Amino acid sequence: MTQKLNRHGIPVRTAHNAALAALAADLPSPILADVTGTRRHIALRWVAYARRDWAEYLAARAGEQGQGVRK
């Protein structure tokens, strides 16, 4: 499929990498690994590449757990 798309001028690798970078900017690495089916160390590299700080997310989750809210 990749070869056919490339022959028609659709750059699959570029689109794939852009999609992974976008997901890595929005998801923690363990979730990214589960969603994409990649190994966790590879997902960790993508998240590091996207340079997302998860302190705000972790603080929000800690606040939810303190209030007894489950997600």
Describe what this molecule looks like in 3D.
This protein has one domain. Helix content is 73%, strand content 0%. The chain contains five helices and no strands.
**How many β-strands, per DSSP?**
0
Rg, please? 16 Å
The whole-number mean of residue pLDDT values reads 84
Strand content: under 5%
Order of secondary-structure elements: HHHHH
> How many independent structural domains?
1
Gap between N and C termini: 38 Å
How many helices? The count is 5
Note the overall shape.
Answer: elongated
Class computed from helices, strands and strand pairing: mainly alpha
Helix content: over 70%
As residue ranges, the low-confidence spans are none
Biggest sheet character: none
Give short descriptive properties of this protein.
single chain; 71 residues; mainly alpha; 0% strand
Itemize the secondary structure elements and their pairings.
Layout: H1 2-7, H2 12-26, H3 29-36, H4 40-50, H5 55-66
Helix pairs in contact: 2-4, 3-4
